[in-house]
What we know:
Chain A has 19 helices and nine strands.
Amino acid sequence: MFTDFFYILRQNKVPVSLVEWMTLMEALAKGHIKDLDDFYFLARAILVKSEAYYDQYDVAFQQYFQGVEAPEEIAEQVLDWLKDPLNRLFLNEEERAKFESMDFDELIKELEKRLEEQTEQHDGGGHWIGRGGTSPFGHSGYHPAGIRIGGQSGGRHAVQIAGERRFKNYRSDLTLDVRQIGMALKKLRQLRRTGLEDELDLEGTIKATAKNAGDLDFIWQRSRKNTVKLLLLMDVGGSMEPFAKLCSQLFSAAHSSTHFRDFQYYYFHNCIYDYLYQDVERVDAVSTLHLLHTLESDYKVLLVGDARMGPWELTERYGAINYYERNEIPGILWLKRIRDHFSHCVWLNPDDPRFWIHPTVQMIGKLFPMYSLTLGGLEQAVGKLVVAK
Amino acid sequence: MEKDNFAQFSGSEDYVTSEPLRNAVNVSIALGRPLLIRGEAGTGKTLLAHSIAQGLEKKLLTWNVKSTTKAQEGLYVYDTVQRLNDSRFGDKDISDIKQYIKLGKLGQAFIAPEKVVLLIDEVDKADIEFPNDLLNELDEMSFYIPETNETISAIHRPITVITSNAEKELPDAFLRRCIFHYIEFPTPELMEEIVRVHFPDIKDSLLSEALKSFYKLREVDDFRKKPSTSELIDWIRALIAGGIPHENVSKQLPFIGTLLKKESDYDYFVNNFVIRRR
């Protein structure tokens, strides 16, 4: 039933799976629907799992149901007639398979014929059921039935709702892979025993108890916690614009990871000079030197940037792209200082590795192990960050 | 599942629902699948479960998920330390492991003699693997306790409500098994209804003035945390308690602290609204 709707949804990039589709079929078979409005909300609740897809769902819904001139409400008696025997029927797998294989049009014709013949409720509904699990059609099929039987025209509320596309603003293809990145970052951990002694050391307890000639002697130990502290330095603006989405994914993944002991992030533009910034607009400045002094060297450093710039911007005094920065120390020396201070640094480059032949990319690549900002590259980078030195 | 049971939930006295939400709740009850609720903070995600429990006269079990919560804790905890202690000092029969198995909220919901409402609150607070660890248990509504060689299966499938603030992405496999509903921010009409539920005697003039100011404030995109329903309710309570005449509400916006909770928002408000008006 409605199989085309399934494919239209998928065409519109709503991630609907067969599991959900079967759930919808189950719900339809139970007969929880009285009109298209109900169907709109029912199908949405079952098929769509994030408000980010509500808009795509609306679009698909419109595509599928547009031109459906359904009656205002499906005639009461048709509904009752269809509904009544249904709730006594529990579909099993076999029956379901049967109804899927039934010829839909045939059923419609039959239904039409019956409707013409009868003017009031007909308990011959049992007859339909008797023909083997065909009943679900009554509900799932109510819409074509509506078109054909009712013949009255009138605006459909649900299609209108879909037409409003109120969820356009919720649409964000952006967060889709945050989870994957989060999973990759999860590997960034080093477990150490820290904090209060709140975990029972079973082996120690057994040993101590044995020594104590069977008198219980509890031994407690500190529980294991992640000790990784992460410092994220991101290049923003300019040539990084095309990768802004990717970078913000990385950022939100890192930011929502709760398992780091500490997480700090700063922005820079093009290359790091005397100052790093706490906001993307680069207003809130923090002296790079101050950071080098205050952050312990065991912070794991993730630098993100395309590393592409004019060679002078990297190697020259006063080379900063922002004229007023007047850096006394060339960028490359700042980068070296960072590398020398922190024990683990990696550079993630969102650019295609084919373009890494650029001179400044090469130079920075010599300072930091460079990986591409893909899931694979991120995993390698994380691996590099956790190895002991 | 009888169909006449379908439209079970229709909101409760102090909780106003929209039709899509009622539908989603009823579908989830009928299909016996967990209902995943998302929405802006303060739109009543948690209250929904309370309302379902109240409306259907069922017991409510709440499992508050925290960042340290493990999936296992919801099923059962085997209190080995107590057993060890009893083996030495207690006079209990410690060979009966059963008495050391303490069921978690999920377990309690399964063995409850009648259908209960189970609220798993803020599921996204926990570890990223947490929802996956519960997949099977929520799907089959049963779990196995190896220590006692027992399988706990649900006598009645609990009505499960899961809330999420979308702090973390939830795994697809988990989502596939849920019914999903996104609570939209209430329209002014629905909001009026909601406020009236809380303050049945409120004067029309005060209500409309308060709502007008409230929605105007919500239009300001620069607020880091926009005021939400619960803040509006607090604000109106303050307005009534303070006996503020309605004509002063939109002019002076008294007790603004109940609406804006972040310092930066408050500063922004003072700079852009108060000063300009002077």
